[in-house]
Design goal:
It contains 14 helices and 16 strands. The chain is an alpha/beta fold and 390 residues long. Strand 10, helix 9 and strand 11 form a beta-alpha-beta unit.
Length: 390
Amino acid sequence: MLNLSKCQNISHIGLTSLTNGAQNLEKLILSDSLAVTADLAKCLHSFSRLQLVKLDGCVGTSSGLKAIGNSCASLKDLNLSKCLAVTDESLSFLVQTHKVLEKLNITCCHKLTHASMYSLTNSCSRLTSLRMESCSLVSRDAFLFIGCCQFLEELDVTDNEIDDEGLGSISRCTKLSSLKLGICLKITDNGLKHIASSCSELKHLDLYRSSRISAEGIAEIALGCPSLEVINIAYNSNVTDTSLVSLSKCLKLRTLEIRGCPHISSAGLSNIAVKCRHLETLDIKKCYKINDTGMIQLAQYSQNLKQVKLSCCSVTDMGLIGLASISCLQHISIFDLEYLTSNGLASVLLACQSLTKVKLNTSFKSLLPQHILQYIEDRGCVLVWKEKSV
């Protein structure tokens, strides 16, 4: 494996010299470095065992990318994210000459359209991972082609035009374990029902800012995908405590992101705490109705919790001190807690021996005794001070 990412002063000449005789090279990472040209393609042609190439963020030409299509016959993993050389013509040529491709990343390739999706899904039947966030020119009907890729395990269509009909097609990919649908404004509960009915192996679901999803869709997912480990339903005003009651049936849940869900309260969070004993990461920022009751439930039942973001909610000293009893808690973000005092914060920092990183309002820096801050840092905990949370 050779990693030359961000080495922008190196050309194909240096790469050729460096890799002379390296017939066993399998992975080549050129992210944000060499230009995608015909000369680069010639260099790659000598690596008969090359399986992974990363060209994300590289400049170059469409002809250069097509030249790579004539090289690297064994290629299985290709990253073209933010690569300006990617067009319908170049990608179509590339996938037609690399039909054994298993993983493809075309995130932010803004020139791609319906034509690329047709060519890709017809050529690469062995595809297991497709990441295509923010491919803004791909029309919603193009997502119907994805159902042809029935070996897919990972699909990222964040910030795209996909709709319920597209999800219906994708539900044919029954091996899906990771599905990212963040900022997909056309999908509804009906689309999620398709996924829930067919993709029982789903472990990771991202619905960040997909605002037309409600408790009904979440309930379908919880019922149809019992192996769910990670779910992001942040910034959705339709998500309620009922949604968390449904998700509490997913006993393997490890990560829950409900940031910016104003209708979720401690009652809903308590269901997760009591039943999802494997919970490790929790983001409840801007969940204004979550208070000390929710923290006490977490402290009592969520003993595997490692990371908590609880900014902008109604937690006080008592709730935060309760969290300090979780023996494996490592990271915590504490911003804009109106009822938190410096004494309460000091007690938490002293009591929680497992902490390795804490993010805090800068305003507390002058309120906490210097010897306590020094003790915390000497113990190996990094204190990150910011004016406000992001």
